[in-house]
Specification:
The protein is of the alpha/beta class. It contains ten helices and eight strands. An eight-stranded parallel beta barrel has the order 1-2-3-4-5-6-7-8, surrounded by seven helices. α2 packs parallel to α3. Bound molecules: pyridoxine-5'-phosphate.
Length: about 240
């Protein structure tokens, strides 16, 4: 079965936050994405609130018609927010304040009991948890030990591969990781750095459930939408 598409709308909020104003509103973007066939809406509420704001997550909870995936750091503050807002699932990601975007998967073993406790708290409240990890066997086995229902395989290294050999190797790593995760009873999503050029091979991995894609879709939206936006402004000032 083909995977579903979760559209990450963080960068709509990035544009809004550039002026700290009200447009473009990620809520409107979510509606358009759903009308266009998105199977889910993904947002990352970062600790520094650089793009998505608490208000966005609250309103999206009321307006998203498909499902809402909340990406967040594994912290007590974020778990409390998730327990209150109740997204359809939560993806726990590593977060560093100085990074431009998420740089890699979680180090599950390095997080100790804290992670298992957060997974349990969320899943007891009927919020399935996905752990964003590299497709590394040790990370996948450790993910299973936490009780999380899903893993999201980090595709960033695959996306950054520059030679055919590297690309083949990274794809194989993701295929083997998916097989192992499924055999451990985990459900498998993937994301990060996926584009119009590199996504098809990931979509074709057997058992892949959902792809979470943001930057490339919002980038294309800015370009394919620019023609109409300029024409509309030109028409407005032409009399
Ligand atoms: N999945 C996870 C866990 C992420 O952190 C991100 C980036 O926020 C994405 C998917 C989407 O990545 P991109 O914007 O590169 O498509």
């Amino acid at each position: 079965m083909a995977p579903t598409l979760g559209v990450n709308i963080d960068h709509i909020a990035t544009i809004r936050q550039a002026r700290r104003g009200t447009e473009p509103d990620p809520i409107a973007a979510a509606v358009i994405a759903e009308l266009a066939g998105a199977d889910g809406i993904t947002v990352h509420l970062r600790e520094d609130r650089r793009h998505i704001q608490d208000r966005d997550v609250r309103v999206l909870r009321q307006t998203v018609y498909t499902h809402l995936n909340l990406e967040m750091a594994a912290t007590a503050e974020m778990v409390a927010i998730a327990l209150e807002i109740k997204p359809d699932y939560v993806t726990l990601v590593p977060e560093k304040r100085e990074e431009i975007t998420t740089e890699g998967g979680l180090d599950i073993n390095g997080m100790g009991d804290r992670l298992t406790k957060f997974v349990e708290e969320l899943q007891t409240a009927s919020i399935p948890v996905s752990l964003f990890v590299d497709a590394d066997p040790a990370q996948l086995k450790a993910s299973e030990q936490t009780g999380a229902k899903f893993v999201e395989l980090h595709t960033g290294t695959y996306a950054n591969a520059r030679t055919e050999d590297q690309l083949k190797q990274e794809l194989e790593f993701l295929i083997l990781g998916t097989e192992l995760a499924l055999s451990l009873g985990l459900r498998v999503n993937a994301g990060h750095g996926l584009t119009y050029w590199n996504t098809k091979a990931i979509a074709q991995i057997m058992g892949m459930e959902e792809l979470n894609i943001g930057h490339s879709i919002i980038s294309r939206a800015a370009l394919v939408g620019l023609d109409r936006a300029v024409r509309e402004m030109k028409a407005l000032i032409t009399f």
